[in-house]
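Hey all, quick one. A colleague (J.T.) asked me to put the FE3-S4 cluster job into the tracker so the inputs and the structure tokens live in one place instead of scattered across chat threads. No bug as far as I know, just bookkeeping. Sequence used:
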Amino acid sequence: MTDQNSTGAVAGQSAPAAGGTRKVFVKTYGCQMNVYDSERMTDALSKDGYEPTTTLEDADLVLLNTCHIREKAAEKVYSQLGRLRDLKKARAKEGREFMIGVTGCVAQAEGGEILRRAPAVDLVIGPQTYHRLPEALKRAKQGERVVDTDYAIEDKFEHLPAPKKAQTRARGVTAFLTVQEGCDKFCTFCVVPYTRGSEVSRPLAQIVAEAERLVEAGVREITLLGQNVNAWHGEGEDGVERGLGALLTRLSQIDGLARIRYTTSHPRDMDDELIAAHRDLPKLMPYLHLPVQSGSDRILKAMNRRHTAAEYVALIERIRAVQPDLAISGDFIVGFPGETDADFEDTLELVRQVGYAQAFSFKYSVRPGTPGAEMDGQVPEGVKSERLERLQALLFEQQTAFAAGCVGKEIDLLLEKPGRMPGQLVGRSPWLHPVNIDANGSEIGDIVRARITGAGPNSLFAEAIG
Ligand code: SAH
Ligand code: SF4
Ligand code: F3S
């Protein structure tokens, strides 16, 4: 999982509602798992007559689905709540309902503290209890200020309603599907084990049923999600306990499903079966997000990543040996406590050895309650900024080189949405680049054969062939 979506995005679609229906505006911060959760909350509320809106002014209910991963992400929520408080006051004068809910990882981490800091908030719901959202909303409407941050024992996925076919279709031809939640790894910088709870895998049959439902509604590409997606395990149809490789194999048997991806993986959980899946499953896209965080063994140890830099590089080599076409993506943290110039140089060296097609890099952010926050040797902000700049320059160079290397290649392109120019569509390359192409009679959802003709800073250009 990558929190590349940190500017926030709106779930659902902008279908204009009939007069009188209530509307929910969901603002999503953080990673893809929050995007998925926002959709499922929207589905849960549709039973109560709520339609999604992308216009705040139309909303009767606002949900901020929040992220706690770095300080900035968490602080964003409070500034947004300040603006919503003003809107709530204005609505009260008109006598119109305006409910505010905080969900996601800040909700889990701060719980009732949010109600104290932001008196306009009506409900606070943690990620493991979204199936109880309609009930919580009912109580909030009766005047109770609700906080529900239990780690529910019942399976929330069993209780969350499936979207209507039309809703799935409106969301497009690609979809996220959470297969695993939570994390037991306890990297010393990270809040996720505290905000999402311990690692849980959804049962195979439940995942297959959801994937089949998505495909029936027109979805062509599914991205399996998990904080540690490759830690997924479950009983196969033969009753034997298997890993993510087996799940991918099962899903690739679904007719009509053209492409499968998964994110985010931990290097420790890349087993042989999963590596073999990259060789054996044509539907599995040649893209792997495999964060390493640092190239220094000393720092990796302090981070509790439980592998060395050399083990990571060797792992990448093993996967590339079975799938030479693979694009590698990564996450990096600079300025972890104790990181010296030499440690940072090791990170640059690892990056040079691997060659990344895509990457996300961050300055270490102190998270209260994590072991990293208590460590000696906190790195000054200025040093962090300098290192980040150098790392990002190198990663950008590699990204640009990878994209330039795509020019001239022939690919299958899944057309996803209208392009900026009339007659243009945007698709995704196997390596996840947005690709602009003239529609030429093709439609969204089609997979066309195309030749890549150019590479811009953020996207590729292609022409149809054959
Ligand atoms: N489970 C995934 C990552 C989840 S969080 C993994 O193990 O790789 C996404 C990314 O946010 C991380 O990979 C890390 O690079 C970054 N991140 C997490 N905590 C952070 C912190 N305290 N400061 C800066 N970046 C952080
Ligand atoms: Fe956080 Fe580490 Fe778990 Fe990833 S593996 S979610 S970085 S604790
Ligand atoms: Fe953020 Fe929670 Fe995802 S902290 S990155 S929204 S798991």
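Adding what we noticed when we looked at it: The longest helix spans residues 381-406. The two ends are 36 Å apart (CA to CA).
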